[in-house]
């Protein structure tokens, strides 16, 4: 199974810098763009280690309203160490992560669950969320033969919903009323991992998986 580092190249746009054309207090409305270019650099995406869990917690606190106690991070990291990934800068700063696990339902096919996905605002729209989710999904298939992956998202979170539906090809399976602590409903979403099976599942498991699928159909 692939659990090594993954290097991805990102295109980053510098924010325009405005230079006032006079000393009047209203001059900032009239600016000259002096810097608006793109720079390519390499971001490291790798399997999360136990020593990363505190930084993942800090990233979560910066990005999301859904927060967790540290023992929940250790529960994921120690129970399913293959499934969680981080995105880090060259200096080791963690700027994004995916926290994932396997669901243990004996009456269902093996499937994974995305507990939390976060990317710092300064590093969004670079494809990091998609890459993190792809790595976690691949690991679910390679290590645990997952047939699909699930997640929850707030009904009001339009940006995340667009990411999951349009970019990552998740589909809404149901609405769970008052799923979140503040009473907001959640969309429960699922994604079939068959494309990952075709690419990454050990060949000797395909027959066994089809047999299990037919049993549940």
TrEMBL record:
CC annotations in GO: NatA complex
Entry keywords, A to Z: Acyltransferase, Transferase
Segments forming a coiled coil: none
UniProt keyword Acyltransferase present: yes
The protein's Enzyme Commission number: 2.3.1.255
Domain of life: Eukaryota
Catalytic activity of the protein: N-terminal L-alanyl-[protein] + acetyl-CoA = N-terminal N(alpha)-acetyl-L-alanyl-[protein] + CoA + H(+); N-terminal L-valyl-[protein] + acetyl-CoA = N-terminal N(alpha)-acetyl-L-valyl-[protein] + CoA + H(+); N-terminal L-threonyl-[protein] + acetyl-CoA = N-terminal N(alpha)-acetyl-L-threonyl-[protein] + CoA + H(+); N-terminal L-seryl-[protein] + acetyl-CoA = N-terminal N(alpha)-acetyl-L-seryl-[protein] + CoA + H(+)
Domain N-acetyltransferase: from-to ranges: 43-194
Entry GO MF terms: protein N-terminal-serine acetyltransferase activity; protein-N-terminal-glutamate acetyltransferase activity
Enzyme class per UniProt: transferase
Family statement: Belongs to the acetyltransferase family. ARD1 subfamily.
Name listed for the protein in its UniProt record: N-terminal amino-acid N(alpha)-acetyltransferase NatA
């Amino acid at each position: 199974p692939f659990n090594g580092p993954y290097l991805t190249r990102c295109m980053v746009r510098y924010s325009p810098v405005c230079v006032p054309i006079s000393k009047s207090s209203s001059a900032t409305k009239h600016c000259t763009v002096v810097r608006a270019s793109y720079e390519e650099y390499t971001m490291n995406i790798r399997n999360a280690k136990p020593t990363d869990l505190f930084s993942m917690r800090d990233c979560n606190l910066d990005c999301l309203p859904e927060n967790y106690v540290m023992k929940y991070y250790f529960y994921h990291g120690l129970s399913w160490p293959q499934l969680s990934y981080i995105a880090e800068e060259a200096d080791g700063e963690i700027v994004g992560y995916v926290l994932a696990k396997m669901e243990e339902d004996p009456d269902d096919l093996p499937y994974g669950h995305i507990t939390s996905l976060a990317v710092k605002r300064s590093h969004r729209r670079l494809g990091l969320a998609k890459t993190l989710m792809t790595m976690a999904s691949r690991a679910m298939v390679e290590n645990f033969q997952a047939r699909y992956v699930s997640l929850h998202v707030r009904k009001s979170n339009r940006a995340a919903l667009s990411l999951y539906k349009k970019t990552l090809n998740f589909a809404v399976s149901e609405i769970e009323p008052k799923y979140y602590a503040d009473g907001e409903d959640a969309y429960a979403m699922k994604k079939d991992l068959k494309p990952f099976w075709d690419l990454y599942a050990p060949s000797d498991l395909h027959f066994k998986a089809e047999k299990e699928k037919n049993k549940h159909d």
